[in-house]
Amino acid sequence: xxxxxSPHTADPAADGANRPASDGRVASxxxxxxxxxxxxxxLESTRAIxxxxxxxxxxxxxxEPVCADAWRAFALxxxxxxxPLVVAECDGVVQGYACLSPYRDKDAFGxxxxxxxxxxxxxxxxxxxxxxxxxxxxxxxSDERTHRIVSVITGGNDASxxxxxxxxxxxxxTLREVGFKxxxxxxxxxxxxxx
Length: 195
Hints:
Elements: E1 9-10, E2 31-34, H1 40-56, H2 68-76, E3 85-90, E4 93-102, E5 112-119, H3 128-141, E6 148-154, H4 158-166, E7 170-181, E8 184-194
Parallel strand pairs: 1-5, 5-6
Antiparallel strand pairs: 2-3, 3-4, 4-5, 6-8, 7-8
C-alpha cells in the first residue's frame, strides 16, 4: 500500500499539457476533488488503479494487491492535517488519484510530505498526472504547515522525472538496488520541491 517509503509517480506518459484552471477543471472536463472514504466507488476505483501498478508495474514496491480494508484505512489517514488525497474524475469515472502523505513517522518530519500520483493505464498521456500534481502543489503552497514535498521515483522512469523537473522539483539522490521486483533490482531516485 502507498506509504512513506514506497510511493512513486505512475503516469509515465504524463505530458503536463492540460494544466487545471482555477476551478479545478482541465479542458477535457477533468475534475479534481477530495477522495471520499464513505464512497465505495472512490475506494474501489483508486484501489484498482493502485493494485494494477502492484501487479504490473514498478511505481510501487508492493508485491501483493492491497485488500479493501487496508485501502480504506489508508484513505482515512488522509484529508486531515497537511495530507490531502484527491481523485481526478471525468464523466463520473475516476481516472487517477494523488496524495501527500507523511514523509516519515517522527514528529519533526511533519512539514515534509511525500507525493504519490497514480493514473489508470488507459488514462495515461492525457495530462491527468500533471493536473493532479499541479493541484497538490498548489494545495501544499497554500498550507503553512507544509515546507517541502519529496517524491520518490523508481529508476528508469524518465517521463516522471521530466514531469517533476517541469514542476520545479530538484533531483537529490539515488539509492541503488533497494527493491527487487519482477526478477530485477530497482533503484529509487529522490526529488524535492521547497514550497
